[in-house]
Amino acid sequence: MKHMKRPWCETRYRGNLVDMHIPDWNSKFLSEFDSKTYVDMLEKAHVNAAYLYASSCLGICYWPTKVGHQHNRIKGRDILGERIHECHRRGMDVIVYHNWWSKWAYDAHPDWRFVTAKGENTADYLWTPGHYGVCCFNSPYSDFLIAQIEELCAGYAFEGLWIDMIFWPYTVCYCSHCRRRYHEETGKDLPKIVNWENPEWVAFQRRREAWLADYVGRITATARRLKPGITVGYQFAAWSLGWICGVGSKFCAHSDYASGDFYGGAAEQSFVCKLFMHLTEKPLFEFMTSRCPDLNDHTTMKSRELLAAQAYSALAHNGRIFFIDAIDPVGTLNPNVFDELGAVAEKTMPYEPFLTPDAKPLADVGIYFNFESMINPKDNGKPVAAAGAAGVPLTAAITNIARTLMQGHVSYGVLTPKNLNKLHEFPIIVLPELFMIDASEADALRNYVQQGGCLYATRSTSLLTKDGVKQADFLLADVFGISWTGETVEEVTYMAPTPGNEGLFAPYTAKHPLTIKGAQMKVKARDSAHVLATITLPYTDPKDPLKFSSAISNPNGIPTSDPAIVLNQYGKGKVLYVAGCLDCMEHDAHRTIFRRLLDTIAPQQPRLKTDVPKSVEALVFDQAAEKRLIMSVLNFQADLPNIPVIGARIAVRLDGRRPLKLLRFPENTAVKFMQRNGYAEFEIPRIDTFLMFGLLYE
What pLDDT digit, counting tens, does each position of 214-268 carry? Predict the structure, then answer.
């Protein structure tokens, strides 16, 4: 049987985008643009997946469109077509970039505009006032954009289409089109008070998510109808901002691969790569970041060491690195930038032949979350215009858990409802505080534990359904081994070990317990469960300004019998329920105890053992077709260049595999290893930034 060619997104590891958000009021703008020189720069950087602007966030087009407005200063030239031709001539795959935002359409059609609860339009409040115009998904602009996509698909040859900035722009829309559609569908007016325990408000939010998901589905269907085999991708980064942007599981399912731009450090990239790895529909997710410290900075360059560490991190996760530059207003690019990107690519390219798109990540812990829980209950009762100031607790929680695991060299993955059928691949599942879950999640988690999986769950998880109905008890009460009775008034609390469990909490004791910055759930343990720690309260409510026990802190003073941590056996598995947000705490003391607790329920020895510093992460993938484990070791320190790590040891669990040979890639040189106690163990004399090894087995 003849094998079908894989889509470009499963074979390309080096992507690039040049931002071209250039207006056309000045005759100098884009006057020096040259398509050949543009592609020369990409070639210098060894790019093999080129994202080319069809339009910018200004809605100004770079092809002679009959739908919309072409940039005045390119004098009718088709600079999109020119660049596509040049890229294809040089062996690059082309992904056409199109931006949902359009200041041109916003100005030309005021009735299409997004409208906030305050009556503002996006040019009034978005980032730099006056720069950005966003039209509503429910306005005729939706048909306008589809017409542009049809024109692009009919007129050009390209391998992929990618849509940027396609989400609700940081608040709820109250334009006439949204009001009319909601009334036609429900007979009601748009709600203006946030309340996650009010089914009417929650139903409205679900409609916002559905409206957005349905529209991106329409874009995907249009592109695939006109160009069978094309990939379609969307900007995913808005998921981290929570419910307000409306990006959820159904939205993501319409994209062929997970992709988005981020600007944090090593821990954030580690987390995002693992999320995208499990969220992507096709192999090879895409991690996007700028070549400059921030997109606001036009000329400053990241160090080569930082660019290399970011590229290696994407590679280590079996993903594609994607660097973003920005064009000068006159249409030129800085050759030095592409020399630097080329130097980085020359470091990573030799490893690409040893990667396979279908490699399976191996990990001990899965962090599970859902997009519906990206809310803040503290917003309940607030007008929409006042909501969101306190942030999204779940974003902070899951990234903190990831950092804790990464620093402790605990291998982990990041799961969403897309992966409910893959829970069994992880010996331990960690549930941060999931404010909302549904019956399918509850059933999957219950079955996972029943069959021998181990679960760590936090605070109010499973007290509220995804349609906004507060439960009298946890949906997973039987699994947790507890019943819910309330919540502490105090928002500074403590966890005190019960007799016999002091070792888990050392050096913290019943007299000097562990501080938790936050309220804890009040629960009653069932007879089958074991209480590992109880809640201790401060002498007074910290919110009382007059009655206190210490002028600065809130010392522990009132021991209680209320469980803080409960261990329960359920079926063949174990569950740790934690009444307070231990996993949200950012101190080393809390991180250590969190990892100890996971050790108490771990059903087997860890997949990886190593003595490397916190800054070093080791990842393992199984390339079953090649009968090879790929192990990548990344040293990504906060201050670069890295201080080399000397004389580290790594051991990987074999799980019945018989190891034949350990090779260091890309040199293919043999490395000595020892097989002991079910592990293959070896020494790494020196780690600068990145190493890759292949363990051949049978």
Answer: 999 999 999 999 999 999 999 999 999 999 999 999 999 999 999 999 999 999 9
Closest to 467 in 3D by CA, of 282, 203, 681, 669 = 203
Q: What is the pLDDT of residue 536?
A: 98
Amino acid at 520: Q
The C-alpha torsion from 97 through 99 and 102 to 103, rounded to 10°, is: -80
Q: Which residue has the tokens 């990831």?
A: 402
In angstroms, the Cα distances linking 54 to 85, 228, 238 are: 14, 20, 22
Q: What is the number of other CB atoms lying within 10 angstroms of the CB of residue 530? A: 15
Task: Specify the pLDDT at position 409.
Answer: 97
In contact, 68 and 108? CB cutoff 8 Å: no
Q: Is the peptide bond before 641 cis (omega within 30 degrees of 0)?
A: yes
Residue 388 is predicted with a pLDDT of 86
pLDDT, position 390:
83
Terminal Cα-to-Cα distance of the chain (whole angstroms): 27
Residue type, 62: Y
Q: Which residues of the chain have pLDDT under 50?
A: 1-3
Cβ burial, residue 252 (10 Å; 0-12/13-18/19+): buried
- The Cα 433–Cα 524 span in angstroms is 18
* E strand segments, 216-319: 231-234, 259-261, 286-290
Both tokens of 233, joined, read 């991708």
- Residue the block writes with tokens 């049987």: 1
| 286 beta partners | 259, 320
